[in-house]
Design goal:
mainly alpha; about 40% helix; elongated
Amino acid sequence: MTGFFLCFAIFAVASVLSALTPTAQAPSAKDASPASAKAPVDQPVPFSHKLHLTFDMKCQECHPNPEPGDRMTLPAADKCMECHRTIVKNKPSIQKLAEFAKSKQTIPWVRVYVVSGWVFWNHRTHWEAGIKCETCHGEVGKMEVRTEPTTVTTMAGCFDCHGKNDASTGCQFCHSGR
């Protein structure tokens, strides 16, 4: 339990210092109001997880997890165009998507979740532990527009989940400087 309080004290001091430092980064998603109060972000191409998941697609089909496994990547235009070469291809948003693919441009998706740079976090570790995507990302299959419905990017959210799943809460697991 002492480790928890030490971690919490370090986090509290770091938070205060970063808030007082003039060169501090812009507030991350975790510094904002509770996740449920966040407005959806505007994406370069409108996308409905609710619609796409009705086709029994799996998260990893569009969000691969390349080595070293810390991030699930965001879909590339070519991946989207595998289906959209023929499906609703005349829709303006799909034509915009086709332009990204044709020009080999990365779609400038806006990340919904942001984990602070001083935190080591790995999708694959959690996935291999049997944590389902919905645990952290909410019921994406019911979302027309992607939002951040959980506190997964906050230290409190991590401690809460680790406590419920009897997982380690030692500082070194997230702040080891990897």
